[in-house]
Amino acid sequence: MTTFPSTPSLIEQRLGGGPGMPPVLANHPAQSVTTIDGWKSVLFGLPFLLAGIAIECAALNMLPGRKNAPDWLIGLIGAFFFSGGAFLVVHGLRGAARKAEYERESAARPGELWLADHHWHREGAAFSAFGSMLQRLMAALVWNVFLVPFFWVGLNQRGLGRMFLVVASIFALIGIVFWARWIHMLADFFRYGGSFLSYDEFPYFLGQKLRVRLRASRHVASMNQLALTLRCVQEKYVTTGSGNERRSQVVCYELYKDVVTLAQTQLASAYAGCDMPVEFRLPEDQPPTTLVQTPPTYWEIEARGKAGGVEYEAYFLVPVYRRP
To answer: Which residues 6+ apart lie within 8 Å of 241 measured at CB?
Structure first.
């Protein structure tokens, strides 16, 4: 884990402004879902899982004691603890099993490590606009449901309890950003749907040419331009602050990028054949894909454009490795 002290100059460097540091990809979808993995995740999540079970038992009158809140609110709080703990436990177990599987497969196929590194589809990679939209919807719903206990305390308790109402209202206003982003993704889904990036080869090796073909909605042909970015991304677990202000997050760093921009005339011509061919040159001096590692390093192609006021945005993993 990379730790940066919480000073303004170093925070600016972490965000890509410092000399010798790769730029940070803000709001970039990460492969890492959290900053803790494997058995550490299991041990960290287990107390929350057990606490959630105990709180649910109290809500169902299975434990003695006086209640200071209605059963539905106690059950909701228990659900928060249980779901958070269950997520960390399952995430940790899956990660540990995945690394054990990698060790077995890499030993059996030492010359084909890409087969053990990730469950690739040889024909290409799909991007689901529906999946991205659904994830954003769930994030917006969870954010608002999480604020329900604070609103209850603020509305039912006098004195300092009113502060809960104020804080919950402020966070509810912040949550409007989640809903705005979801509406944006919903419009993206209805206009463009899913996309597919076909590989001309499998895998690709550093130092060679990378040729792919993008298959997308017919609305892509009406864009003013479409930017296709080949990028090498390295994720890190970054910790800032100290004490109670200590915070860890997944940060995506851009180690390399190459951009191909297609104008509207090129898009119309390319789309006539349904698949839009694109070619990049892979450098030799960049790291290969290591998706099994935590945090991972990987190569992707980002497609981005806009038509009719609706933005098209899609991400595709590409199997880029070092030749054995």
So the answer is: 6, 247
Per-residue pLDDT of 14-35, as tens digits, reads 454 456 678 999 889 999 989 9
Is the pTM value of this prediction over 0.85? no
DSSP secondary structure letters along 119-131: ---TTEEEE-HHH
| pLDDT classification of 4: cutoffs 50, 70, 90 | very low
Give the start-to-end residue ranges of the domains of the chain. Answer: 1-30+195-324, 35-108, 129-193
The one-letter amino acid code at 149 reads P
Q: Does domain 1-30+195-324 have CATH number 2.60.60.30?
A: no
Q: What are the respective helix, strand and coil percentages of the chain, to the nearest 5? A: 45, 25, 30
Query: For residues 140 and 179, is the Cβ–Cβ distance under 8 A?
Result: yes
Tokens of 236: 């890190």
* pLDDT for residue 288 is more than 90: yes
